[in-house]
Each structure stands twice: as C-alpha cells, then as structure tokens.
C-alpha cells in the first residue's frame, strides 16, 4: 500500500487490523479476559498494554499484574513538555513556556495525571521537573526540525472488542494537515531498532481502531539524534504490533509460560524475591 | 543545614556575560558538507567493528555501545573499560568527589530554572527525590557534611541571569548511530545553549568540580563531535566551567572534530576487538583509583595526584 493511500483503503486497513487483533487475542487468551461488562473505573479484571509495555524486557515480570509506575522527572518530563509546546506562544523559548504552564498547572491542564504530585513538590523539586521538561521540549522540537505540530497532552486508549484488554497509546503530536500523520517523539532508542517499528505499528493501531481508519504514516523521532523516521502504515507494520500484543497477552493469561529474563531491570522488580533467576543475578552483583 | 549567601563570581562576571562576549564575533562553525569526511571516518570504523562481531559468538555485543564514559575509559586503560563494563567496583558507593559533581550539576540546573539554591543539601535531596533516584539520595544524605555543598551552591550563582532566549537546557541527550544503528555513540551534555532552532550560536558547557584536567578537554571535544553530527553544524563554542573561575573555552574547528573523530574511530574498533576476545592492554594512571580490577591487575599503580606533579621540563 502506498504511503498516501485513499481513505477507503485506510478504512479497510483499520478494519482488517481490528479483526486480526481479535483473532490473535482469541488464540492467546482463550476464554480468559472476556469482557462481560463495562470496564470498571479501576480497571479490575482487565489488563492494559501500553507502548512502553511493548519493550518489556522480562516476560515473567510483565505476566504478573501490578502497577509499578512511579511519578518522577523521568515520567513527567514528556507530559509537561508536551503541555508547554501545546501552549507555547510564537517565538517563546520552550523553557519559558514550561515555566509559564508549570506556574499555573490547574489553569493549563487541571486533570494532568501528575498535578497533585507536582504541586506537592517543594521549590527545588519543581525546578528539577521544569529542567527535565525543558530538555524534553527542546529535544522534541529539534527532532522534528521545529515543525509546527499539534502537541498532545492526553493519551489515546482503545478497548479491544469483547476482551478485557485496553491498549494505551503514546502519540506525542499530530501533524497539522487534513489527514494527520501520527507523530511519536521518543528518547533513548535508536530508530533502527525493531522495537521502534513495533511501537510505530502499535500507535497506528491504537489511533486507527476507534476511528476505523488508519493514518498514512507514523513518524518516530529521536531527540538524542535529532532525526525522525517515517513508517508508512501497512498490514505488515500493524501485524508486527498485533503479534507483540498477543504475545504479551498470552503471558498474562498463562503466567507460568512467561520466561524470566534477568537484567538491570531486576533491581526494582516487585517479583525479585520470588524469582530465582533475578535473585541469582542480584546475588552475583547485578547486571 | 547551611544557607547560601549571595555569593557571586569574584570578578562579578556571570557565565551568561562571558558567553555573550565570547560568541559575539565567532567564525562560522563547520557544517554540512564540511562534516562529511568526519562522518565517513566514523562510518568506516563502525563497519569494521560490526564485521568483527557479526556472525560470531561475539555478536551478542551488538549493538556496540560507546557512551562517553566508555570512550574515556578506553583512552585511559582498556582493562579499566572492560572491568567497568562487567560491573562496578566492590564496596560500591560513589566517591565524595563524584557526589559533589552530581550536586554541582543540579545546583546549576536550579540556578537556571529557579534561581539561587537556598538550602544546599535539602534542595539537592529534593531534586534527586523528584528524579526518583532514591539510591543517590541515600548516598548524598550519608555523605552529608563531607560534601561541602555550600561553596558549590554559591558558585552556581555564576549562572544567574542567563537569557531564556538561549534556550538553556541541562543533561540533554546526544547520540550518533552508525552502521544502521549497530554502533551507538551516546552522551549527555551538562548544559547546552543556543543551536539551530534558536537563532543563536550553539554552545556546549561541561560543568566540572575541581581543577582542570587534560581528560576534560577530551570530553568536550567528544561532545562537540556528537553535537556536530546530530545537528549538522558544530557548536560554535566549547566550554568547561569550574566553580569560581572564568570559562575555559575554545572555538570548534574542523581540526578539532577530525581529531575527535579519529580518536572515537579507534575506540570503536578497539571496543569491538575487546568484545571479540582480544586481551585488554593495561596502562596505569588516574583510572587505577576507580578500577574494579585494581586488586588483581599487575599494572596497578597507586594513582598519582594529577595536580601535584611538577610541570614536565620542555626539551630545548
């Protein structure tokens, strides 16, 4: 399929991807994780798959439900940076925009997930967050060559039909064109990595299934190398993501099937005490 | 807990003043096609490195990673680089000097984004906890008064008044990926100012505790190379900031970049050879102080204090 496929072709692509995801999850989950009611507010009985989860290095850790998300400069910098870029005035330095929105977060984004945490920090803690957000924002702008984009501050989600499974996207910005391409700004991962391709397919999936139409391209960006790489949305790209989602789902359905892959991530793993491989690694001095 | 008074640079000249002055009339930095020979040299080294590893048991070493610290270790002593890659030295925690360096980075960050540090240890811990680095927080708290933070916090006041129009950012990532991403050279710059999107010259500043050392020069020229390849234009100015002193600075020329590229190309190939099983050479030096193999390396020598040595006599 060409990068500039017709609307009809992109609708068909989204429809086929949704069907293939359903089939893949049927195989992976069997009769587990059937959606029998509306998703509860706390997500009990469901599991989520985020773009971050796709690169989960240890299946055993992923297989056990648990929320190990921690608020920190690392996890908040992107969110505050995107907010600043969304609200930035023409020619305003990104750091000044960060300071401005952080100075009155309630006015800028009252339902930001980090607002209570941020407001609870003292002056120095907030300085650390603003510094990280500024670095993120400048890096993101450099990656896209300063192009004007619609920076996204809310994350897209997509519940999989008939399954107690939610996909959580991480699209950072949309292009300002009639048929937007999804743009994801990432840091720290080389754009040649296969994981980046899978992530691109995943973002296309999460964006395309609810709209019943895929975007033309997903553009992945690296702040560290100030480049982007465009991935035309094709069956193959979507299948790479569907395959990974199904693989993760199978681990969650049958945790005993999930192998342990010890590594530097063992240090903060909630399963460490019951994981022989991780314990052995840590006893040997870590990764 | 100490409070910092309004200490300032002895000469009353801020870092911002110095940068404004130094960048007022700089020659255009190397850019675009100027950089092609440098790119070619690194690309060739990366291809050689991958060829050494590809298809053998050493393939697990791919992608070959050369963060700045590894490049500097390799320059110092190959055995040090291999040992540090394998794991940290026994007995673990960071030295007081290293912790002071971490503190100074954050005080500069605080000055740039919030203004003066009021309570050095308290503010430092608040920043580290916001970063979620509880282990570092524990080490800093345990070191306590040994860190002598007040002078560092006072020195960071030199960064007051930096114009936001410079787009100052701290700990910014820079990476150059070669051989289709199979060789990765990466670093994190203490302070970056200006650059292609800002309409101002690009300035790279390394923040350093203590006195100048030859290895610091290697660090900043390495960063100049990475920034040049990232941005397609070299930084106009490279600087090192030591508390209480004027900026140590240099203009970036093609020779600067070429020299850094030759060095990095050698390190890429050396690291690949080491991963493929070549025995590491040993060279005693300052790195012995933090080498994990110090207790079993036949070349170990008690590290000399680089600041105590008399200047070498220059032959007539």
Could you characterize what this model shows?
- The complex is a heterodimer of chains A (287) and B (316).
- Chain A has eleven helices and eight strands.
- By secondary structure, chain A is of the alpha/beta class.
- Chain A has two domains: 7-55 and 151-257, no CATH class; 73-146, no CATH class.
- In chain A, the strands form two sheets. Chain A has a five-stranded mixed β-sheet, sandwiched between helices. Chain A has a three-stranded mixed β-sheet with strand order 1-4-3.
- In chain A, helix 1 (7-29) packs parallel to helix 10.
- The mean pLDDT of chain A is 91.
- The longest helix of chain B has 22 residues, at 254-275.
- Chain B is of the alpha/beta class.
- Chain B has ten helices and six strands; from the N terminus they run ααβααααααβββαββα.
- In chain B, strands 1, 2, 3, 4, 5 and 6 form a six-stranded mixed β-sheet that branches.
- In chain B, helix 3 packs across helix 4 (78-86) and helix 6 packs antiparallel against helix 7 (134-143).
- Residues 1-9 and 309-316 of chain B have low confidence and may be disordered.
- The termini of chain B are far apart.
- Chain B is 41% helix and 14% strand.
- Chain B folds into two domains: 16-88 and 165-275, Lambda Exonuclease, Chain A; 91-159.
- Chain B has helices spanning 15-22, 36-53, 68-76, 78-86, 96-113, 120-130, 134-143, 149-155, 214-231, 254-275, and strands spanning 64-67, 169-178, 183-195, 200-207, 237-241, 248-251.
- Chains A and B meet through helix 4, helix 5 and helix 8 of A and helix 5, helix 6, strand 2 and strand 3 of B.
Summarize this structure briefly.
The complex is a heterodimer of chains A (287) and B (316). By secondary structure, chain A is an alpha/beta fold.
């Amino acid at each position: 399929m060409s990068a500039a496929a017709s609307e009809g072709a992109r609708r068909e692509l989204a429809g086929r991807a949704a069907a293939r995801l359903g089939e893949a999850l049927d195989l992976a989950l069997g009769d587990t994780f059937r959606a029998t009611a509306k998703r509860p507010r706390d997500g009990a009985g469901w599991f989520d798959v985020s773009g971050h989860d796709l690169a989960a290095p240890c299946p055993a850790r992923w297989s056990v439900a648990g929320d190990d998300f921690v608020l920190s400069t690392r996890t908040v910098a992107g969110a505050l940076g995107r907010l600043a870029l969304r609200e930035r005035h023409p020619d305003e330095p990104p750091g000044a925009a960060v300071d401005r929105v952080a100075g009155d977060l309630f006015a800028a984004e009252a339902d930001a997930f980090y607002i209570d945490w941020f407001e609870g920090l003292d002056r120095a803690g907030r300085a650390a967050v603003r510094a990280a957000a500024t670095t993120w924002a400048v890096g993101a702008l450099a990656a896209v060559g300063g192009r004007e984009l619609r920076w996204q501050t809310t994350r897209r989600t997509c519940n999989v039909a008939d399954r107690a499974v939610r996909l959580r996207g991480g699209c950072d910005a949309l292009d300002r064109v009639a048929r937007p391409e999804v743009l994801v700004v990432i840091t720290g991962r080389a754009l040649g990595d296969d994981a980046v391709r899978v992530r691109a397919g995943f973002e296309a999936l999460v964006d395309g299934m609810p709209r019943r139409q895929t975007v033309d391209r997903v553009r992945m960006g690296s702040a560290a190398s100030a480049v982007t790489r465009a991935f035309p949305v094709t069956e193959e790209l979507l299948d790479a993501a569907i395959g990974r989602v199904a693989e993760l789902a199978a681990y969650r359905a049958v945790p005993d099937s999930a192998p342990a892959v010890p590594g530097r991530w063992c240090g903060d793993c909630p399963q460490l005490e019951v994981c022989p491989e991780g314990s052995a690694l840590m006893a040997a001095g870590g990764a | 807990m100490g409070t910092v008074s309004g200490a300032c640079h002895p000469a009353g000249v801020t870092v911002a003043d110095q940068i404004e002055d130094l960048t007022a009339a700089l020659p255009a930095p190397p850019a675009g096609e100027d950089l092609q020979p440098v790119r070619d040299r690194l690309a060739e080294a990366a291809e050689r490195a991958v060829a050494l590893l590809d298809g053998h048991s050493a393939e697990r070493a791919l992608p070959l990673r050369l963060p700045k610290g590894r490049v500097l270790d390799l320059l110092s002593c190959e055995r040090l680089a291999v040992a540090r890659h394998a794991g940290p030295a026994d007995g673990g925690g960071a030295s007081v000097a290293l912790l002071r360096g971490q503190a100074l980075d954050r005080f500069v960050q605080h000055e740039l984004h919030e203004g003066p540090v009021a309570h050095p240890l308290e503010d430092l811990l608040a920043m580290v906890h916001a970063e979620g680095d509880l282990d570092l927080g524990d080490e800093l708290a345990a070191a306590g008064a040994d860190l002598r933070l007040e002078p560092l916090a006072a020195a960071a006041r030199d960064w007051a008044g930096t114009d936001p129009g410079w787009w100052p950012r701290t700990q910014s990532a820079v990476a150059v990926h070669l051989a289709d991403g199979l060789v990765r050279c990466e670093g994190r710059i203490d302070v970056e100012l200006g650059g292609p999107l800002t309409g101002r010259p690009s300035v790279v500043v390394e923040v350093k505790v203590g006195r100048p050392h030859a290895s610091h020069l290697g660090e900043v020229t390495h960063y100049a190379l990475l920034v040049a390849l990232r941005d397609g234009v070299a930084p106009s100015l490279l600087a090192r900031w030591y508390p209480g002193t004027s900026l140590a600075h240099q203009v970036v020329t093609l020779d600067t970049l070429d020299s850094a590229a030759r060095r990095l190309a050698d390190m890429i190939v050396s690291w690949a050879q080491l991963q493929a099983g070549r025995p590491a050479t040993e060279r005693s030096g300052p790195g012995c102080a933090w080498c994990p193999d110090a207790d079993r390396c036949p070349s170990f020598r008690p590290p000399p204090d680089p600041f105590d040595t008399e200047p070498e006599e220059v032959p007539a």
